[in-house]
Amino acid sequence: MTAQKTEEFVYKGKRYQSLYAEPLDQYLQTQNIEFQPIASSCWRGYACLWIISDNKLYLTGFSGAIRIYTDDDEFSPERSYEIKNISLNELFPNQQNVFAEWFSGEIKLVRRIKLTGNDYHDTVYKKVIHLTFEKGILINEEIRENKNSFLPKWLRFW
Hints:
The protein is mainly beta. It has helices at residues 24-28, 88-91, 153-156; strands spanning 8-11, 14-18, 46-53, 56-69, 81-87, 98-99, 105-110, 114-116, 124-125, 127-134, 137-145.
């Protein structure tokens, strides 16, 4: 299985990736939008850039591909459609920084440097930042450092 492209976050001036978090998904569940997979590494069909500023979560970058059906037969298994690339402005017209008031939950942030592993299932990161949001507002931050004594000595300096 191909590892999936992660969401990108800017937090306290540093760029991070998320582990299994897709904050936009809570918004998309209320919309009637069907995304087209971009590649085998992005089955959700879109990529986002998020910024956490003043303890608020903002969507600031977006690119994706949607299906636009070209016929009215919604029950046909061979229904015709076209693929259209969309930007943040098309998803949220006239907004550059979209406050994610729809999102409540936890986001785990990591830096690109990993200590071991080839994919998400066996990767060990040096530090994981756990952020908890309530309606787009950061309410808790917990930093968990890996005590990597189980790693070979040559990996411990990371």
